[in-house]
Structure to design on (130 residues):
């Protein structure tokens, strides 16, 4: 089961963070069709957020066709986003872990690492389409 977390530094609204975390878990194969999401009550207790925030995230997942609520039972995943090729790229993941260790050793914090990755990805994408 997925364990949600909130990052107050991102500027992304809490409900969107929950949606993004579910989408990422689906893409990585950590959640599959039929899996149950944590109950609203459990998420509220764990994250100390308003229940409406969790309801809004779950409604958005339903709107995207990724989840469905079963009244009195819970919310369940209805579709996967798994890219089978992601599982085959373990060597890339290992290289990324090594690169992250180098970035940390160079004194970069998480926010700086994310900024560097985002900027590099945008630049590379722009160059590919030019």
């Amino acid at each position: 089961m997925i364990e949600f977390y909130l990052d107050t530094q991102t500027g992304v609204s809490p409900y969107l963070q929950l949606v993004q975390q579910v989408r990422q878990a689906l893409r990585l194969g950590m959640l599959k069709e039929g899996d149950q999401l944590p109950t609203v009550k459990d998420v509220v207790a764990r994250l100390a957020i308003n229940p409406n925030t969790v309801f809004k995230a779950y409604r958005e997942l339903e709107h995207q066709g990724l989840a469905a609520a079963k009244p009195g039972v819970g919310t369940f995943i209805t579709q996967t986003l798994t890219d089978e090729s992601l599982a085959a790229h373990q060597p890339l993941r290992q290289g990324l872990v090594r690169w992250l260790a180098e970035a940390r050793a160079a004194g970069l914090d998480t926010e700086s690492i994310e900024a560097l990755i985002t900027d590099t990805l945008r630049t590379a994408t722009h160059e590919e389409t030019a």
In short: Residues 110-129 form the longest helix (20 residues). Residues 14-77 form a domain with the Arc Repressor Mutant, subunit A fold (CATH 1.10.10.10). The CA atoms of residues 39 and 72 lie 10 Å apart. The helical segments are 14-27, 40-47, 51-63, 84-87, 90-105, 110-129.
